[in-house]
Amino acid sequence: MRRLKPAMANILLTNRCVRSCPYCFAGRQMAEAEADTHLSWENAVYLADFLEKTGERRLSLLGGEPSLHPEFVAITAYFAARGFNVTVFTSGIMSSAKLGELAASVALLPRERVQFVCNINNPEQTPESAGETERLHAFLKAMGPWTQAGFNIYRTDYDIGFLFDLVERYWMRRRLRLGIAHPIPGAGNLSIAVDDIGKVIARLEVWRDRFESARLKPSFDCGFALCKIGDEQLGWLTRLAGRMEFKCSPAVDITPDMQVYCCFPLAGLARKSVFDFDSYRQLVNHYRDLQHRLRAEIPGIFPECGDCPHHAEGTCSAGGACQIAGRLVRENPGRLSDIERTFSEPRLPA
Question: What is the dotted CATH code of the domain comprising 9-286?
Answer without folding.
Answer: 3.20.20.70
